[in-house]
Amino acid sequence: MKNLTRNHIVVPHRSERRFYGHGIPGVDLEQLAGKLIAVEGADGSGRSTQIAMLVQWLEGCGHATTQVGLKRSTLVSEELERAQEGNILSRTTLSLFYATDFADQLENIILPALKAGFIVLADRYIYTLMARDMVRGMDEAWLTNLYGLALEPDAVFYLNVSPEELVQRTFAKNAALDYWESGMDQGLSRDMFDSFMKYQTAMQKTFRRLQGTYGFTIVDGMRSAQVINAELQKKISVVLAGK
Amino acid sequence: MKTFAELGFPGRLIAVEGLDGSGKSTQIYLLKRWLELQELKVYFSEWNSSELVKAATSKGKKRELLTPTTFSLIHATDFADRYERHLVPLLRAGYIVLCDRYIFTAFARDVVRGCPPEWVRGIYEFAALPDLTFFFKSDLEVSLKRILDGRPQLKYFEAGMDLHLSTDPYESFRIFQGRILEQYLAMSTEFNFLVLDANQVVERQQGVVRELIAQKLSLASFHRAERPPPKLPAEPHKKPVAEEPVQ
Q1: Could you give the C-alpha distances from A50 to A38, A103, A110, A182, B97, in angstroms and in order?
Q2: Does B16 lie at the interface with A, CB-CB under 8 angstroms?
Q3: Which of A180, B58, B159, B195 sits between 20 and 30 A of B142, alpha carbons compared?
Q4: Which chain B positions have a beta carbon within 8 Å of A98's beta carbon?
């Protein structure tokens, strides 16, 4: 066991923090010593694999980590799940429901963890939520104001995988396409395969657009998990060193 | 922001606003009865009443999980659900929709809780303005007395206990409601509130409400269409269509 001496553990460099918009009332940004890293991408883009590998690596390097993801809040996750199953909520309602879920995790998990100096890994962040709504025709200015409550992460990686490859990966796992990930609520096509392709293509286009505003890193997700993770580690090391 | 009339809806939305215990719910109930007895198309909707969202809200309140931000968002979710699924379709169908509390409740409460006013207003931008908004202006003491007469204890969020204004719920309620009143008064002109003296007796207030509505709406145009007596449904277990909406 080498690398276990104190000298090898890097203390993350403090960086300046900001909320995207109005933020959360009463939060002292100076106190948020930890790092927030978001991984974005469609289902099947390899997000969970990459996050699991990052946790291994970060903990090996002596950093405490915590994970968050969509629909995991204590407050509304169950209700949100039920609403989605029934497909009974209208667009604005669903959007606000997701925002509530996000805000609950931001205030109860992300901010306290950052305050305690943890590295927080977010399995999807506000960009997926915004992209889904934008694809469905919601007003971008309205979404920008709504998600102005979010903290700007230290790094955001978008795992870019072609819709064709996403289909193959999904079928290798499930033999069925997911209703929402196929955008079936939008009536793009009655053929689920067609709908999936159209929806995922639209989502990618929207992500590229959001990238222009939020400047996240687009990662080629078509390579092997190890190669991708090596790239992420390299980029995260730079963030931790504050370069 | 425009009213439903300005947006060309055939229906009209009437909202009541005021402090807890201002008597606005009694007034809107009596208004609803009056309109119903004239055979008009009326629908009533209450703040924080969407079935699905309500479960999450009451869990959040019971376990005191809510922060000012999530409190605001969950109420916006509830409102959006009612707005998109009930209010808008009914207004399209030419109903008089009565709302016990509307977006101004959020504007007042969320801001008192510390949410940025522009953020809150931005969230509710999808909603049109009411065609008439009655504001029941009551003295704090009168509101406090009405709440206490009806219930033995003040509720945690109702008293604004989450803001830690005072450890005494009554004192907290007084301060919290006082601040909400300030917010309401500041919005009064901007949103053309029709201000009513809520310290008066029930009948006198209702008299004013009915008079104003009769003046401002052509009530006759909201009559229920003459319908033939309901036919026997083809399938015995199915409800006949075009029933009155469930309330």
Answers
A1: 11, 24, 19, 23, 51
A2: no
A3: B58
A4: none
